[in-house]
C-alpha cells in the first residue's frame, strides 16, 4: 500500500482473525479508466493482507447507481464484506446530486440491514482531474482506503 502523508492510518497493520473472508468488489464501469485503478488498488490491498484471490468476487456494473443493487445482492449471497467503487463527476445538471445522494444512502442502508462492512470507494468530484488525484495521485488512493476499511472492520469478526 502506498503511504500518503495525510493518510497515515493506512500504515496501521491489519490483524485479521483469519483470511477465509469472502469479499466482493463491485465496480462501476462508468469512468472506467479511473474505477479500474481504484479496483486494482483494492485487490492489491486485500491480497497483501492475506485474502486469497479465490475469495475475492468482482462484479462490474454499468454505473454508480447500480452499485446499490449489486451490493445488496452480494450481501444476500453471503459475502463477509463488500467494496463499492465508482466515480461520479459533477456536470451541468442536478443529476450529480441525485446520484450521489442515492448511492450514499443506498449503500449505508445495506450496511445497516445486512450487518456487514461495506467500503465506500465512490468518488464524488467536481472534475475528472480531482478523481484522478484520488486514484493513486496527490490525494491518495481511495480504492486502497476502501479495502483497508473493510479489513479493519473484519478484524472484529
Which stretches are low in confidence, meaning pLDDT under 50 for 5 or more residues running? 1-6
Estimated radius of gyration: 15 Å
Termini separation: 23 Å
Strands of the largest sheet, in order across it? Answer: 2-1-3-4
Output the CATH class name: Alpha Beta
Principal-axes geometry comes out as globular
How many domains? The number is 1
Level of helix content?
40-55%
- H and E string: EHEHEHEHEEH
What's the CATH architecture name? 3-Layer(aba) Sandwich
Assigned CATH superfamily: Lumazine/riboflavin synthase
Question: In CATH terms, what is the fold-level topology?
Answer: Rossmann fold
Description:
The chain is α/β, with parallel strands linked by helices. The protein has a single domain (27-154), classed as Lumazine/riboflavin synthase (Rossmann fold, 3-Layer(aba) Sandwich), CATH 3.40.50.960. It is built from five helices and six strands; from the N terminus they run E-H-E-H-E-H-E-H-E-E-H. The protein has helices at residues 32-48, 67-76, 95-114, 128-133, 142-154, and strands at residues 23-28, 56-61, 81-89, 118-125, 135-137, 140-141. The strands form two sheets. The chain has a four-stranded parallel beta sheet, with helices on both faces. Strands 5-6 form a two-stranded antiparallel ribbon. Strand 3, helix 3 (95-114) and strand 4 form a beta-alpha-beta unit. It is globular and about 45 Å long. The two termini are 23 Å apart. The model is unreliable at 1-6 (pLDDT under 50).
Amino acid at each position: 500500500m502506498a503511504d500518503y502523508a495525510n493518510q497515515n492510518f493506512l500504515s496501521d497493520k491489519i490483524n485479521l482473525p483469519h483470511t477465509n473472508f469472502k469479499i466482493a468488489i463491485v465496480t462501476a464501469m462508468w469512468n472506467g479508466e479511473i474505477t479500474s485503478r481504484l479496483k486494482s488498488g483494492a485487490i492489491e490491498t486485500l491480497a497483501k493482507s492475506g485474502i486469497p484471490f479465490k475469495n475475492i468476487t468482482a462484479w462490474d456494473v454499468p454505473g454508480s447507481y447500480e452499485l446499490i443493487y449489486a451490493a445488496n445482492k452480494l450481501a444476500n449471497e453471503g459475502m463477509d464484506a463488500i467494496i463499492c467503487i465508482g466515480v461520479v463527476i459533477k456536470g451541468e445538471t442536478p443529476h450529480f446530486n441525485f446520484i450521489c445522494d442515492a448511492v450514499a444512502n443506498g449503500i449505508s442502508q445495506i450496511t445497516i440491514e445486512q450487518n456487514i462492512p461495506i467500503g465506500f470507494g465512490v468518488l464524488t468530484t467536481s472534475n475528472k482531474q480531482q478523481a484522478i488525484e484520488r486514484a493513486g495521485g496527490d490525494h491518495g488512493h481511495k480504492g486502497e482506503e476502501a479495502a483497508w476499511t473493510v479489513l479493519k472492520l473484519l478484524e472484529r469478526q
